[in-house]
Specification:
mainly alpha, 0% strand
Length: 238
């Protein structure tokens, strides 16, 4: 046990250990999701978070120490978001034909996401800092962190809320839209992209390519609109 502790102490100081652990945790999550037939509850991100949280707790590793090694994954969020332009281009004709419904749904979805979160937080007596932290929770992480910081919120807590929003959205979207009898893949994809950003978009791509493309445009446009909407909405509750 002493030898193992010494070996682990050495490995924990190596940045690549946590990057490797993150990738392995996701592979475990993806394997479990595939074994479960891609059921909504078997979300690979959720499983990976549970695996990593258990590993950090078992080894007594702090989050800053973990992030120092795994921050390359965080860096890749930007290029991954930009890469969504490829499926969007492939669906450009369908997007052009549905431009007006897209813009209407975008405004309604973005306004609802921000105002509902702030209204609930205000009713629960959250401080201005926490309200600023909560406002961009339906936006993709790189944009949400910037919005939170500019409004005086906590970017670290915003990151947690963004991940939770995405995971919950990815889990409930399929059964919820089935219950509502929404069959149009464009509407299904756009809805999850606006409400659950990148994690929801990944789930949409697993279900249908067209849904994934519309989820991507929903995520991108919602990030842009929320950057302008969040400061105004926050001012209403302060």
């Amino acid at each position: 046990m002493r030898d193992f502790s010494e070996i682990w102490s050495y490995l924990a100081e190596t940045p690549l250990i946590w990057l490797s652990a993150t990738l392995i945790a996701y592979l475990i999550g993806d394997w479990c999701a595939a074994r479960a037939g891609r059921a909504p509850l078997a979300n690979p991100v959720l499983i990976a978070v549970i695996v990593l949280a258990g590993l950090l707790w078992a080894t007594g590793t702090s989050y800053p120490q973990y992030f120092e090694g795994a921050q390359f994954v965080h860096f890749l969020l930007g290029p991954a978001t930009v890469a969504l332009a490829i499926p969007l281009w492939m669906q450009r004709h369908a997007i052009r034909n549905a431009l007006v419904p897209i813009l209407v749904a975008l405004v309604v979805g973005s306004v609802t996401a921000v105002l509902s979160a702030l209204a609930i937080g205000h009713a629960l007596g959250l401080t201005p800092e926490l309200l600023a932290t909560l406002a961009p929770k339906s936006t993709t992480a790189p944009v949400a962190l910037g919005i939170s910081q500019s409004l005086g919120g906590s970017p670290t807590l915003t990151a947690v809320l963004v991940i939770l929003t995405g995971i919950i959205g990815a889990i409930v979207v399929t059964p919820l839209l089935n219950a509502l009898r929404i069959r149009d893949w464009r509407a299904r994809g756009f809805a999850v992209g606006v409400a659950a950003h990148g994690i929801g978009t990944a789930r949409a791509f697993q279900v249908n390519p067209q849904a994934g493309a519309f989820a991507g445009i929903g995520m991108a446009l919602n990030a842009l609109l929320t950057a302008f909407l969040a400061p105004w909405a926050l001012s209403l509750f302060l």
